[in-house]
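Input record (one chain):
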Amino acid sequence: MPEDNQDKALHHGRYLTLLERRGWEFIHRLHPVVVMIAWTPARELLLVEQYREPLSAHTIELPAGLVGDEQGKEDEGLMLAASRELEEETGWRAAELTEIMRCPTSAGISDEIAVFIHCSGLTRVGRGGGTASENITVHRVPAEEIEDWLDAQRAAGKHLDPKIYSALFWSASRR
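The corresponding structure, as predicted from the sequence alone:
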């Protein structure tokens, strides 16, 4: 929860709280967020596509999810959540998970910090697609085609999450 005792809660939701601090309204994320950067052994970046209600549109994103948001898993650790979310959303399991960096996602409107996780040693274990409440399409995009593929998705009217470009930058620096 917020550190400043001057925070005024304007609204409480299941996953978010709207706060006001010193005249600034912002959203407090109740659960940490993990974002996975996962390349298959064939050098394909795993991306997910799903309809996002706030945008009323489909988005292309890195696999990601909330930590400790499920009943009975409130004490779930970051790496366990990252492993679970990667498998649920993409159908791939990672042998090794490494934290890369923690970054604000939209510092002007939210205190949300995304924890980027590098996933390596991937093995396909299922179809992916998310949980029963999700409708996720998994995309495996070859490294040499990714820029053209992303351009085509944008031209088709889909929104691209800019965290993808962070993943590409970090991935290039790791080679």
